[in-house]
Amino acid sequence: MTLSSAPETAAVQHELRGGVLVVTIDHAPVNAINAGVRRGLIDAIDAADANASARAVLIVGAGRGFIAGADIREFGKPPVPPSLPDVCNRIEACGKPVIAAIHGAALGGGLEIALASHYRIAVEGAKLGLPEVLLGLLPGAGGTQRSARLIGAQAALSLMLSGRHVGAQEALRLGLVDRVGQSDDVVAEGLAFAHELIATQAAPRRTKNARGLADKDASTAAIAAARAETQKKSRGLLSPLKIVDCVEAALNLPFDEGLRFERERFLECRESPQRAGLVHAFFAEREVQKSPETRDAKPREIRSVGVVGGGTMGAGIAVALLDAGLAVTMIERDDASLERGRAHIENVYDALIGKGRITQEAKARALQRFDGATRYDALADADVVIEAVFEDMAVKKAVFAELDRVCKPGAVLATNTSYLDIDEIAASISRPQDVLGLHFFSPANIMKLLEVVVPARVAADVVATGFELAKKLKKVAVRAGVCDGFIGNRMLAVYRAAADHLMEDGASPYQIDQAVRDFGFPMGPYQVIDLAGGDIGWAARKRRAATRDPNARYVRVGDELCERGWFGQKTGRGFYRYEDGARIGKPDAEVEAIIDAERARAGVTPRTFSDDEIVRRYMAAMINEGANIVHEGVAQRPLDVDATLMHGFGFPRHRGGPMHYADTIGLANVLADIRAFAKEDPLFWRASPLIVDLVERGKNFASLNRTS
Ligand code: 3H9
């Protein structure tokens, strides 16, 4: 084996095997392309061209996949030559046939290397894709030019605009690969292909000359359709429209000019805050899975799970568990309630069948794993039990007393409470070490966020089990400490209050919603209240009334609406009017009159706010509470707050979460805003000690994100 002597190229090795130069990319864990890999690939191709005994080149990945793409940790750092486009061009220019043999992930720059190769073979289990759009980028190493030429404008656009992965068979159908190997031995399959090419004296076949765009009219139509669709859907994202422009360039410009066009667009994307936000989101999602407990302890076994309570939440949790292939036993207090619980579950599946997302058979298979009981003894063998009953401490304690009585030793006992003190629940039974919070978000089978709430006395392996369960459910688990509302709902209470203050001070709820949507949230706060039901927040406000600071500002508009029975969509009226069951509400003059009356009652002279002012206050409130949550250790790091808001509360992903966003606008600016707002309401706007400290030390939130 010829191992390159320079240490930075050790990630690529090459050896001659029977006339084929086998080039292996070996850069664990996913063969991401960094400077060493780029250099190593150029060296390998140079070696192939220089060696008369090498009659073909085979590129393969070591370990579990081909190449996952450019090393996204390099973005934002000074570029180190050679660039990936240069590497791809060098591969394409090779005088010997170059074959890419693909197993596992061939994504982004990884697929671009395969596209620049002359022949491609994939084995089963391969995942091919150009997911750059999900990171705010576009394929920047010839991917837009070569994919369109190879598989046509429509298929290439569909791949690049969705970022989806395709398997080996679909890749074959699309023309992305020439063949699918018979076995999963990627090197053997690649070598066999190479020898066939050598035997038939096949020449290098360069993708830049492929004819996928030959039908100009069809290509033009596909580009126009993609542009129209993207304009409608891309919601302020930069890279999707640029991808369409690049494919248009592929159609209209010579290859080299198309490459230059693509490179310019790629660099614009790479330098954009959207790319930084999306890459931060990518790493935050992976980093949150790591907690001291997951590092130090092994999860307990999870095969069967009990769910106590068959309401909306319990049923949603049961569906999430069933979908993960787990056996579920639901406990309800009597047969009628159990029947309702089962009906809730069936309704969730029926709605999915109605939308064509699953089949009747899939529903039947899931329900085979479901069982219901009215006696807790049915949970004797459960590995994990999740309690999802009414939010009342006495009711929860009664459930936990039963679980303590019937569950086997070592069973993990979880509560889905949204705000109750889990330490108190744990202390009420004989095994506090087995108790933790698993806080799902509604609809529990859809929402990605799971707060793993860690009470003081819980055992580390119980926390690790919470994270393991989240992995099985394909959820983003975030570790949170015990406090009222944990991470997400605690922040929600504060930024909603900021919105209410804005409303009472003069902004209409409709303007606030619009400004928040324009920022990138799918819905504004008042639309969310109408969707979830105004009565939920109303009940929480009543519960907190006794402990509320009498000097704190309290806006009564929401209570006024609820007193009229206007709970939102489900009652046809809330902040908006929903005529004839409409799901999109219309502004309501009567609501505006109620707000006017409340302003008068509170002695407020309404003033106007620009959309920018609205967003600044809304975000400052969110960021400040996020900082408090990190400061108190309820969240481990700012990135945990970011992941929570992105996956549970619709925070726009391309902005990377509130803490990342705060860094992009500058923490000193956020602090200046908070101090300015505090002149009107010093009780509400108290700058978090963490922000003050970071600003004094010239640091940002990112400096607290200990990432691996
Ligand atoms: C691009 O290619 C641009 C080019 O067009 C143009 C250039 C000019 N870089 O997800 P996992 C890490 S843009 C660096 O847990 P899985 C990841 O952080 C790129 N690191 O495993 C994690 O680290 P840690 C286009 C990366 O099996 C570890 O690898 N490509 C990269 O669930 C394991 O990852 C993409 O967008 C990377 N590119 O999933 C693909 N990828 O262990 C992004 C992963 O320290 N990657 N890491 O936490 C993926 O979709 C998944 O990681 C993959 C594996 C499917 C590959």
Automatic annotation (TrEMBL):
Residues 485-578, 614-699 form the 3-hydroxyacyl-CoA dehydrogenase C-terminal domain. Keywords: Fatty acid metabolism, Isomerase, Lipid degradation, Lipid metabolism, Lyase, Multifunctional enzyme, NAD, Oxidoreductase, Peroxisome. The keyword Lipid metabolism applies. Pathway: Lipid metabolism; fatty acid beta-oxidation. The keyword Oxidoreductase applies. It comes from the Bacteria. CDD domains: crotonase-like. Residues 305-480 form the 3-hydroxyacyl-CoA dehydrogenase NAD binding domain. It catalyses: a (3S)-3-hydroxyacyl-CoA + NAD(+) = a 3-oxoacyl-CoA + NADH + H(+). It is found in: Peroxisome. GO terms for molecular function: (3S)-3-hydroxyacyl-CoA dehydrogenase (NAD+) activity; enoyl-CoA hydratase activity; isomerase activity; NAD+ binding. InterPro entries: 3-OHacyl-CoA_DH_NAD-bd, 3HC_DH_C, 6-PGluconate_DH-like_C_sf, ClpP/crotonase-like_dom_sf, Enoyl-CoA_hyd/isom_CS, Enoyl-CoA_hydra/iso, NAD(P)-bd_dom_sf. GO terms for biological process: fatty acid beta-oxidation. Monomer. In the N-terminal section; belongs to the enoyl-CoA hydratase/isomerase family. This is 3-hydroxyacyl-CoA dehydrogenase. It comes from Caballeronia catudaia. The lineage of its organism: Bacteria, Pseudomonadati, Pseudomonadota, Betaproteobacteria, Burkholderiales.
